[in-house]
Amino acid sequence: MSHVLLGTICGVLFGLLAVGLMLPMEFPDKRAALLGAFLNRLAIGVAIGAGISGIGWPGWMVGLTLGLLISAGDAVITKAYVPILGIGAVGGAIIGYVVGAFGA
User: Fold this and answer.
1) pLDDT above 80 for 54
2) 18-45 pLDDT, tens per residue?
3) Which of 22, 46, 53, 91, CA to CA, is 20 to 30 A from 6?
4) CA-to-CA distance for 36 and 84, rounded, in angstroms?
5) What's the total number of domains in the chain?
């Protein structure tokens, strides 16, 4: 399976996990918050899949870096730095490892 396809699949799963974690929370505009979280996590997976073979870093390092960078904007806007950056970093590192190890 190609890096981009595997990264996209992982991004969809990561997005669904993020939405699932946020469902019990209250937001002024819950639909927008859930959609934004899903798209952010999807973007992490797609970016990792597209960029993993280009720079020669280990997959987990590419994932960790992209997970932090893509999550940073949402963390600044919401001021929820630790949960957003933490989940982005861990999820990105896992996706990076999976795409690096199993993607072709």
Assistant:
1) no
2) 999 999 999 899 999 999 999 999 999 9
3) 22
4) 12
5) 1
Domain that holds residue 32: 3-102
User: What end-to-end distance do the CA atoms of the chain give, in Å?
Assistant: 6
Q: Are 45 and 3 in contact (CB under 8 A)?
A: no
Report the 3 state secondary structure along 25-89. CCCCCHHHHHHHHHHHHHHHHHHHHHHCCCCCCCHHHHHHHHHHHHHHHHHHHHCCHHHHHHHHH
Asked if 51 and 3 count as a contact pair (C-beta separation under 8 A), the reply is no
Question: Contact at 8 Å (CB) between 62 and 95?
Answer: no
